[in-house]
Design goal:
Elements (H helix, E strand, L loop, with lengths): L4 H23 L12 H6 L13 H13 L12 H32 L1 H14 L8 H8 L2 H26 L3 H9 L4 H39 L4 H10 L3 H29 L4
Helix pairs in contact: 3-11, 4-5, 4-7, 4-9, 4-10, 6-7, 7-9, 9-10, 9-11, 10-11
Length: 279
C-alpha cells in the first residue's frame, strides 16, 4: 500500500531534522589537542589533558537550556532577568497592537484607493516613496517624538504592516468583477451595502493575504526593533544573552522566534481559508 503524500513528507522532514542535528553534533564535538606533553601534570596545567571544547553549544546543551527556560517561562527577577514566556508576551503584545492599527487604517484606506481611480492616482507617488523605506529607519524619529521605547516599537510595527494590507486591499477591491457591481447597481443597492455585501466578501481573500504578509514582516521587524531599543521583548532577550555570551540561550531563542512566527502564519492561513471561495 503506497504511503500518502503527507506521510512521506513527514518522513522526509524527520530525515532532514536528524541529518541537521547529526551534523550539528559532529561539528560541536570537542577537539583533541595535537600537542603532546611528557609530564601529565604539566599537560593538565597547560590544558592539554582535556579536549578543547567547541565555542558553539551542542544540541544537547541547547536542549538542556530549552528545558530550563520552559520549566519556568514567566519568572521576573528584574529588568535584565525575565523568563522567555514573559519576553514573548511583550513582543506579541506590541506586534498585535501595531498590526491591528495597520488593519484599522490600511483596510478602509485601501477600500477608498481601490474604488476610486482618482484616489489611486493621487496616492500612488506617496505610496511608492514611503513603501521602500526600511521600518527601522523610522525608529530614531519615533523615539524623538513619542519618547517611549515600547510605543516606538509599536509604531515601527504599524509602519511595516500597513503597506501589504493597504496595497492588497486596494488590489482586491479594484479587481472585483464588474458584473457583480452592475448587478448591485441594477438592484439599486446603496454604496455602503454594496461595499459590505459585494466588495468586501469578494476582496476578502486578497485582503487576508496582505494581512498574512504583514504579520510575517511585523514579526521579523519586532526582533530587530527590540534589539535596538532594549528593555523587554524576545529581541532584547537575544541581545542580552549575546552580551552574556550565552549562545545556548541565543540558539534557543532563535528556535522560539521561528516557532512563534510559524504559528502566527498558520493562524492567519487558517482564517484565509475560511474566506476563500471558488468561482
Amino acid at each position: 500500500m503506497p504511503l500518502s503524500l503527507n506521510l512521506r513528507a513527514v518522513i522526509v522532514s524527520l530525515i532532514f531534522l536528524a541529518a541537521f542535528i547529526g551534523i550539528w553534533h559532529l561539528a560541536t564535538l570537542p577537539e583533541q589537542s595535537q600537542t603532546t606533553y611528557a609530564d601529565p601534570a604539566y599537560a593538565a596545567l597547560m590544558g592539554g589533558a582535556s579536549p578543547a571544547k567547541s565555542g558553539i553549544p551542542s544540541p544537547g546543551m541547547v536542549w538542556h537550556t530549552a528545558m530550563t527556560n520552559l520549566s519556568n517561562p514567566f519568572y521576573d527577577n528584574g529588568p535584565n532577568d525575565k523568563g522567555v514566556g514573559l519576553q514573548l508576551a511583550y513582543s506579541l503584545g506590541r506586534v498585535l497592537v501595531g498590526f491591528l492599527l495597520a488593519i484599522v487604517i490600511g483596510v478602509p484606506l485601501g477600500f477608498v484607493i481601490g474604488m476610486s481611480p482618482l484616489m489611486r492616482k493621487a496616492m500612488h507617488p506617496y505610496i511608492q516613496i514611503l513603501k521602500p523605506i526600511s521600518p527601522l529607519a523610522w525608529m530614531p524619529l519615533a523615539l524623538y517624538t513619542i519618547k517611549d521605547a515600547s510605543f516606538s516599537s509599536i509604531f515601527v510595527i504599524f509602519i511595516s504592516s500597513i503597506w501589504p494590507i493597504l496595497l492588497n486591499t486596494a488590489h482586491g477591491v479594484a479587481s472585483v468583477r464588474k458584473d457583480w457591481l452592475n448587478v448591485a447597481r441594477t438592484l439599486e443597492v446603496n454604496p455602503v451595502r454594496t461595499a459590505f455585501k459585494v466588495i468586501l466578501p469578494a476582496a476578502a481573500p486578497t485582503i487576508l493575504t496582505g494581512m498574512r504578509i504583514s504579520m510575517g514582516i511585523a514579526w521579523l521587524v519586532i526582533v530587530a526593533a527590540e534589539m535596538l531599543v532594549g528593555g523587554t521583548g524576545i529581541g532584547y532577550f537575544v541581545w542580552n544573552e549575546w552580551n552574556n555570551l550565552d549562545l545556548s540561550n541565543v540558539i534557543f531563542a532563535i528556535f522560539v522566534i521561528g516557532a512563534v512566527g510559524m504559528i502566527l502564519d498558520m493562524i492567519l492561513g487558517a482564517i484565509a481559508k475560511l474566506v476563500t471561495y471558488q468561482e
